[in-house]
Amino acid sequence: MDEKLILVVDDDEELCGLLTQYLEPEGFRVRAVHDGAVGLGEALSGRYALVILDVMLPGANGFEVLHRIREASPLPVIMLTARGDDVDRIVGLEIGADDYLAKPFLPRELVARMRAVLRRARADAPAPAKAGPLTLGEVTLVPDSRSLRVNGAQVHLTDAEFSILHALLAGAGSVVAREELCRLALGREAAPEDRSLAVHVSNLRRKLTDAGAHPVIKAVRGEGYIFCRPEQGENGQELSA
Predict the structure, then answer these.
(1) CB atoms within 10 A of CB 74
(2) Cα dihedral sign for 155, 157, 161, 167?
(3) Which of 6, 16, 92, 110 is a Cys-bridge partner for 97, taking CB atoms 3.0 to 4.6 Å apart?
């Protein structure tokens, strides 16, 4: 895998040309393809550090391509969506996109999103300071290998999901601020109308439950999220004897 090689899958050839012109001076090398099926084959080749993937594509749409990528690889993916189409953004995140960007966008913002996603993928982003595996109930998170085991079985997480769970487990029993989780999981500040974090948390809950864990990850309105300890109730409050 080439850490500087970026795959752009978009049928807008003019946009691909503009992205290439902008990203190459930023130190990236760009390969652009304009068909979903071709893009899927390229994405699964193991050559690329990150994929920029449009939703509307000939051959196979972006959701289909993302789903197939996620079946086989944790390769970071940023999806491009039509401005104002919240449904596309949420579906993309639910399937496993690392982030999204609405068209039209500023190239500078795309580069910032790319660098944040790549930092997470390389495990260079700051993590909660707690050494060794983190275990709570059936859940064991191993920071060094960025792996999760539930009842001893391996569970695959995206980089964003891993960062969220790491922060929640490290602070289990206490609220972790939404702003901190956005910084760790998305590499950017929280925006009032941005539902990315909520969708990542929902995906995380589903994966844990499907694996046989019974975690209680609660949203605390206006503050953030809490991973409740076993002695805490469903509302995140301590149970009395």
Answers:
(1) 16
(2) positive
(3) 92
